[in-house]
Amino acid sequence: MKSKGKWLTTTVLGIGLASLCSDIGHEMATTAMPVLLVSLGATSATLGLIEGLADGLSCFAKLLSGLYSDRLAKRKPLAVAGYFLTAAGMASFALATQWWYVLLGRIGGWLGRGARTPVRNVLLTEATTPKTYGRAFGLERAMDSTGAIIGPLLSLILAATLGLRWLFALTLLPGVAAALLIAWMVREKPHTAQPHVRLWRGVRKLPAHFKQYLVGVGIAGLGDFSNTLLILWATQAWTPRFGVIRAAQLAMLFYVGYNVIHTASCYVSGALADHFPKRFVLAIGYALAVIPAAALALAGHSVFLFGLAFGFSGLYMGVWETLESSTSAQVLPDESRGIGFGVLATVNGVGDFVSSAVIGSLWVISPFWAMLPVAIFSLTGAGIIAVTRPVVAVRHISETTGMAAKSP
């Protein structure tokens, strides 16, 4: 049995560093993307469509990747390829002259992200133990979010000095570094390939309590709109007061603040989840989404209310991302980890697709009507998660000898 203090292995660190580098490149592009779209004449509804379509297609890539990874004796090459594809998609923004160029690049990048996400989560699960899943996933999410602090800052500097085109082209460097880190540092554990597993059969064999848990995740996810909408809305709201350039720079700085809070939230919530029932920590995180929704509904041109929305969004998203993955790692049986993480990612992707497209369009009509479903879905998901009692899967004897099933 692994020592409780040995959870920070080379593999865990390598996955964390890859998330750091990948998110630096991704966030450099994401932070500047609304500015590029505004310069191309796009609206909030266009951005919502871009994010929704990219997330929707990505969710199917996640499902197929999770299934396919269970069939493979070696999962790691699939993750490496996914990181390379994400890097190429973000860098392609440098060539955009129409908004649909951005759509194609975003879809390409998100297909790569979809391919790598379930595999990365399985590799991370197998590199640690159930007693430390919260810290391991919290560290990975925190390093990912640290990249989301560095990325926007680099975006601000490079946009001001080199311009948008060079900014997007340079996102290729950290993206490729992420793929190389997975290739060099991650040590995959041997596992029994499941070459005959089929999609629907694999989904049906998932534990019933995990499926109930996914219902809560999915409903809450219907209120999880893209962060790029926050940047765009803030830029549009502040432009009459500051001008479009200063308004965009201020929105980018607020997004840096979002990611600072998100980084702390990821690790703290992961550590809490190793000591308290995970479902309660996650339910609280879902419920916190009501605060930024209320702030955005009333924000108007207020810098303070937008700041409140950015801050609490970073807080609750840190909880969501860490606890959804670590809870799944705890309850999924060994033989269906890949398909289980794929289904989780697909449920999140469908929620992102619907929420980004619908909420982006509703915002054009009224911020109040855009934020009302966010509050309703978040609270409903919180209630379902709070009463769900997923059973901890008994792991391989070498990992958790004598561990009994219990409710997290």
Tell me the layout of helices and strands:
Layout: H1 10-39, H2 44-71, H3 76-91, H4 99-126, H5 133-161, H6 164-170, H7 172-185, H8 199-204, H9 208-221, H10 227-242, H11 244-273, H12 278-287, H13 290-298, H14 303-331, H15 337-365, H16 367-387, H17 397-400
Helix pairs in contact: 1-3, 1-4, 1-5, 1-6, 1-7, 1-10, 2-4, 2-10, 2-15, 3-4, 3-7, 4-15, 5-6, 5-11, 5-14, 9-15, 9-16, 10-11, 11-14, 12-14, 12-16, 13-14, 13-16, 14-15, 15-16
Structure in a nutshell:
This protein is an all-alpha fold. The chain contains 17 helices and no strands.
Can you walk me through this structure?
The chain is an all-alpha fold. The protein has a single domain, classed as Up-down Bundle (Growth Hormone, Chain: A), CATH 1.20.1250.20. Helices cover 78% and strands 0% of the residues. The chain is built from 17 helices and no strands. It has helices at 10-39, 44-71, 76-91, 99-126, 133-161, 164-170, 172-185, 199-204, 208-221, 227-242, 244-273, 278-287, 290-298, 303-331, 337-365, 367-387, 397-400. Helix 3 packs antiparallel against helix 4 and helix 4 (99-126) runs antiparallel to helix 15. It is globular. It starts with 9 loop residues before the first helix and ends in an 8-residue tail after the last helix.
